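Anyone? Bumping this.
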Amino acid sequence: MIHLTVNGREMSLDVDPDTPLLWVLRDELRLTGTKFGCGVAQCGACTVMLDGMPRRSCVTPVGMIDNASVTTIEGMEGPEISAVQAAWAASDVPQCGWCQSGQVMSATALLRQIPKPTDEEIDHAMGGNLCRCATYVRIRQAIHDAARTLEG
Amino acid sequence: MTLLSRRRFLATTAGFTLALVLPTPFARAQGAPPDLPATPNAFIRVGADDTVTVIIKHLEMGQGPYTGLATLVAEEMDADWSQMRAEAAPADDTLYKNLAFGAQGTGGSTAIANSYIQMRKAGAAARAMLVEAAAEEWGVPASEITVRAGRLSHPGGREAGFGAFAAAAAERAVPQDPPLKDPSQFVLIGGQGKRLDSAAKSDGTAEFTLDIYREGMLTVVVAHPPAFGATVASYDDAGALKVKGVEMVRQIPEGIAVYARNTFAAIKGRDALEIRWDESRAERRSSSAMLEDMARALAEARVVEESGDRGALGGAAEVLEADYRFPYLAHAPMEPLDAVIEVKEGRAELWYGCQFPSIDRPTVAETLGLPMDAVRINVLLAGGSFGRRAQGNGHLAAEIAHIAQAAGRDGAFKLLWTREDDLKGGYYRPMTLHRLRAGLDSDGRIVGWENAVANQSIMAGTALEAFMQDGLDPSSYEGSNDLPYDVGARRISWARVESPVPVLWWRSVGHTHTAFAVEVFLDEVLERAGKDPVQGRLELMTPEAGRYRGVLEKVAEIAGWQGRTRAGRAYGVAVAKSFGTYVAQIVEVENGGALPKVTQVWCAVDCGVAVNPDVIRAQMEGGIGYALSAALYSAITLDGEGRVQQSNFDDYRLLRIHEMPQVHVAILPSTEPPTGVGEPGVPPLAPAVANAWRALTGQPVRQLPFAQLLS
């Protein structure tokens, strides 16, 4: 049995401990906002918060995170995620949309750490999130916009 | 109106189908009017809550047809943008044909172009029906009713939203030929309406294929052959069946399918398979050997365009010559291929990002031995495609149908291709060789031009072979002929080579390589003749090339063009027309070590009437990033045993955020009919970068990707 707190809910799961967190979230818990893109931590589409820090769920066996707290895009709350999602919609960042949950998670984690990031800090924090539609110009803009919103 | 399910709704309104005849190029070419669906009700659903839902006949894979087609409808309905919604049309080619293809499908950057009149007529008809219903209810002449921002009103003081008359309007006859607005009256077309799908794509609620879970569904992964054209000789599934969660293993024509209760078990089960492959008919050549064979094949190239004096090159003062080599490219959409099927009591229902419903639906029906009307395809959002889901042979539809069939029972099955399956699975942009020759006279004037192209055909051997003419596949060489330049005597030829490696259209298709070969070689020739790249191109442009000239002049203006180099940076230019849209780009390049670092891109686009300017900008930005990714890094290569050497994003490198240049887009004002923007942002980028790199380093670029420079 694996014990996890997912989006604030405590649960015990009878799954193979090798199973990547990604597939537990999707196949067992039907939290489908977290996406599969590569399976080897190269694209960031599967990014979730693990004990508050961004983590690639596709390479995180659940057996290694027993008793951890996981937050997916469905369970995110707070001013940063709200500002990021509002900025994403206002700038029409998404094209196909597949990678954007992961982008939003990484951007939110960035703004929690650095409220007013520079372009270099954005590059550093977002470098692990691929976007095949290359919405990068707008991702950068939307992060700056969200930072301004948070500044008040 | 909203009480009815959509299927029932379409059934009850099918009697309203109009026979509008629109002048599409395809219809003219066929010499017969297209079989046109034009009932507004097949495309528009008005809710009692005033929402207007447009049923979108094109796959939304990021390029914005949900927003674009809804804009066309909203404009003629005089709707307010906030009341607009979009949802995908199911596979049904009696109602939802692409008028450019004569079949239901998305591709060739045709969504806006083929829908421009059709969707506006649907909107205008719906508006007229709402007005008539209101006129009857209010007892006033229809001509006295005005519609603005989704509100019907009469000078007598009556006012209502669309929802109040939705039910009554649906009962009215559909106007045969509703008048359309003059473009000067447009409010939403050319406006700043936001995309309809941004919010759901920012909070994880947008539903894609992989998000579908049916009762009792099994997840399936397939062990595909390790070499193209190999088949299963024998296999042992004992290890796979021991994996907890694996339910069964079946051989299907595509390989060995592992069915499991969850995704991880399916993947683990596949890893535990032991398979012996028969590679006697497989491609065993390396990609470099294949390129050498292409060079030999050029001797047999067939002429596709020829004009002027055949002896022009022989009489030239100087002849320049260059070969350009292009690798196989994987599309690598972020969502790999996937599909869900549920077979129950002689019916099959599917859910996936289906790009060619008119090919896929009969493929499923035929495979399962079902009548067409027993197959329903629910078209979902696709997490990118770039051509990957536009399969002339319906191979994904066939694979999911084979999976259902081999299960030997009713049930629901989800097929997932992993990233490794995606990159190793073929359907690549064809590897291509161009051999260019140009002759200059003693004044440096171009007197002759030859371009011989060798590659595989995309259409041959698929349902689209009918589009080939006399054995020629224009998608192999499009863009090498029909040049905007006067380059003297011309001879363009194509050599078709064959291989078991399957190939497919990749965002801008033939233009991915022809624009590079033409615009890089021309740039080298202009340099040799001592000409400025922008001025030299303008001087060569024919009188018919006005729209090429327009974008080139515009891009030079916004980039502040001053020549090839300035303050340690270099600038390169290229211009290309693809899918009816004209794009010119200028790039600013720094030396990033062994590879170019592209810092800025200026882009001028002429796509006729700009329906959604911000979507056009987004497609230029995205096309530039997609093209730069391939230009710098991407290649699928085969080793000496014909095995693909790349497997995931660690060795099939894609552009990341720190490599994305700033992009400045100018959209040329135009009253020409709109053309597409999904692909045309791609072709000029790589040649512009190569031209800048040559200016910066003196190093000509004759092979992509640039990363070849590192080896």
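Late reply, but here is one note on the structure posted above: The longest helix of chain B spans residues 111-138.
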